[in-house]
Amino acid sequence: MGIEGSYVIKLTFAFPSQTTYLTKDSGLDQQLSNAAEAQVKTWREKGVLPFPEFSHQQSKELRNSLDFPPEGSSNKNHRK
Questions:
Q1: CA 46, 49, 54: angle at the middle one, nearest 5?
Q2: Contact in structure between 58 and 50 (CB atoms under 8 Å)
Q3: Model pTM above 0.70
Q4: Residue 47 to residue 28: CA distance in whole angstroms
Q5: Of 8, 28, 49, 64, which sits most exposed with the smallest number of CB within 10 A?
């Protein structure tokens, strides 16, 4: 008997699962959280939310404001 008329049925099952990550830190800093929320509220009220696109001026102001790639990175010498 050859493979003619043969069928292969592959069944795949997915089981619901949940992953919980535990941490020993103290969580978010409430003062920093409140300050961030207030800043976003101000931006929203003024209609100048910078996300997902930054204005040309904002991009210019932010350019090279972070140490990226960070010191010690294998890509540090490739910074433009």
A1: 130
A2: yes
A3: no
A4: 27
A5: 8
